[in-house]
Amino acid sequence: MVDSLNEMWKSANYPCMDFTSSISEVLNLKANIYPNPAQNILYVKTTSNTQLTYIILDINGRVVKEKKETSSDFTIYTGDLTSGIYYFKLINSNSINISKFIIIN
Question: Structural domain tally of the chain?
Fold first, then answer.
């Protein structure tokens, strides 16, 4: 069924997503974030050798921090975040990594 939908949309010359792509193809950027829970500093180590963008979202999905990084290892100051659960989204040109972490202040 998915293949026939893809072919239908492609033959109609409409831009579309390839529904057959697997999630592992998109979420293949590896990242370690620590410590978890964190207080003032969050350390990030990645497998990427290209420019990265990180986005930190609160539990309600609001962006609280966003920045471009050129290094595969970097730190993020988190002392200005209130205690709670956050999502860490790391993006490079073709991959995404999403992690959850906790801030305790």
Answer: 1
